[in-house]
Write a structure and sequence with these properties.
It is built from one helix and twelve strands; from the N terminus they run ββββββαββββββ. By secondary structure, the chain is mostly beta strands. The protein has one domain: Lipocalin, CATH 2.40.128.
Length: about 180
């Protein structure tokens, strides 16, 4: 069964440590997530495509730097992509989602922990489900290495990036 993303109830957010002090948070505003699941809502395959230029942290200069060749280089690499390779149930609606993440034409394996809701019928008669997933990557694995070492030895931009994904999806209507 194919599920269609409900973008108005979905998000992809991230956090990166700044100057060794606190996390700067941001999000991607333009993305697509395709989910194939069995009729009970158990995910079987996930493909996410993210418009890299849609990155936003709320600070225009920082966003422009993140879009530049120092980081995502969105002119040369306009999208990032995640394709699941294995989805393993771990109990209680939880799953370990393994897959390949491509950033700037570099593809490496990543693992996310996800929780999937039960399937419900919404007020309009559609089958609807939700999921939340989280994971961490080391950005240097994808050659995102721009940085500055500060006087005290801390990095200006942390190497670990934490991701939080929240999505709602509606089951594709069956043909009449």
């Amino acid at each position: 069964m194919n599920w269609n993303l409900d973008p108005s109830h979905s998000s992809i957010e991230f956090a990166v440590r700044h100057m060794g002090l606190a996390h700067v948070r941001g999000r991607f505003d333009d993305f697509r997530i395709d989910v194939d699941a069995d009729p009970s809502g158990r995910p079987e395959r996930v493909v996410a495509t993210i418009d890299a230029s849609s990155i936003t942290t709320g600070v225009d200069d920082r966003d422009a730097h993140l879009r530049s060749p120092d980081f995502l280089n969105v002119e040369q690499y306009p999208e990032m992509r995640f394709v699941s390779t294995r989805i393993e149930p771990t109990g209680g609606g939880r799953y370990r989602v393994e897959g390949d993440l491509t950033i700037r034409d570099e593809t490496h394996p990543v693992t996310f922990e996800a929780t999937v809701s039960d399937v419900i019928k919404d007020p309009w008669g559609n089958q609807r489900a939700a999921a939340e997933a989280s994971g961490r990557i080391d950005r240097t694995t994808w050659n995102l290495t721009w940085n500055q070492v500060l006087e005290a030895g801390a990095l200006l931009v942390g190497n670990e990036v934490r991701f939080e994904v929240a999505l709602q999806a509606v089951a594709e209507a069956k043909a009449a």
